């Protein structure tokens, strides 16, 4: 802005004396210091909080994500209850809305995945027990730019179907561990009880066990959703072949049913199983079940949610292109007390 000079002639006036008031120097100095401190405080805390918010977009700081988990088995199964408990714990930490659904039929599971895609979720967690049924819908998730993580079943198919990473155990390796353990407890002829026909993970467990067991082992297919049928099938097999001295089940509830069959038939068969819950730990401690192969389902649910949060917020992918193994760990009478407190609270 330019200054404007007045055209009025210059006049000299005698200044009128004004009374002077001086504030004490101490008062001014204190006020200045207080203002400086206040400004510094605002700059320091505000800047720090803003920086933390920009570099740590987690709970309370970043956008709320919506993550869907769709599994091939679910409610009412203690294993999947533990998976969900882990996922919900991570969701609470990460400011995530967690959605869960399940269906044992491959086509129905795929439809549930499509529903999640239609809901525009920020990430999908899926099991690949029947990978061929999931191929097309996971391609649609990729087209919608929705990241996918697989857990539990289908490690071999995970990368091929576009998942970022797989969390679980190598089912063949776990099966081999179970076969060795079954032989270690003295079994010579065994059953491997498959509670869901066509489940690639369960088939791999039995195949691995046969490889290391050292004796004859045959698969017994049962309908896992019908426990009375499971019991009658195991009982009938033990009655028909008295030489069976080992039973390997592929889930904790089926091990408990096998215990009933052994008692009813008077069989001497020793029982081992995959997966755990608090009742199973008690059975290991009292000797009615010899061992369990623990794949840590809580960890599978927890890490799957955490991975999707990390990917969305920081581009992180765990595993370096390989499955992230959560098992196997063998639980026997010797170490059951160590995991019992965790099983009691429902996290092992």
From TrEMBL:
Signal as UniProt keyword: yes
One GO CC annotation: outer membrane-bounded periplasmic space
UniProt-recorded Gene Ontology molecular function terms: carbohydrate binding
Signal peptide feature range: 1-40
Principal place of residence: other
Domain of life, source organism: Bacteria
UniProt KW Signal keyword: yes
Record key words, sorted: Signal
Subcellular location as annotated: Cell envelope
Residue ranges occupied by any Periplasmic binding protein domain in the UniProt entry: 67-310
InterPro entries to which the protein is assigned, alphabetical: Bact_Solute-Bind_Prot2, Peripla_BP_I, SBP_2_dom
Database matches in Pfam families: Peripla_BP_4
Disordered: annotated segments: 1-24, 43-65
PANTHER family the record matches: ABC TRANSPORTER PERIPLASMIC-BINDING PROTEIN YPHF (PTHR30036:SF7), D-XYLOSE-BINDING PERIPLASMIC PROTEIN (PTHR30036)
Record family assignment: Belongs to the bacterial solute-binding protein 2 family.
Protein's name in the database: Sugar ABC transporter substrate-binding protein
